[in-house]
# Entry
Amino acid sequence: QVQLVESGGGLVQAGESLRLSCAASGGSFSRYTVGWFRQAPGKEREFVVASTWNGDSPYYADSVKGRFTISRDNAENTVYLQMSSLKPEDTAVYSCAASLLYGTLRRDEEYTYWGQGTQVTVSS
# Structure
């Protein structure tokens, strides 16, 4: 069973950058689709980006397109989310998730494994 642990969250000012990491243990990450989701206080969990195991054509939510970039190092069992030009509305708990399904999966129920999340706070 795969365990996922996110790190890299923190408090930044608007316009700054952060890089989140999602480290997997308990199995090889290389065949999993990995997604990032976020949940702001009082709101439903929101899809951010998904990447298939080979990293081809990741799919980004419109709200982050052009500002966020997903990458993965399958040898290190780690997926990264580089976030640039952060806005206050990006404030949320960010979670990574993994699925053996192939594709740019955008729905919660398509993912089997979830991390606990890391808090990102962007001040104005």
About this structure: The chain is about 0% helix and 50% strand.
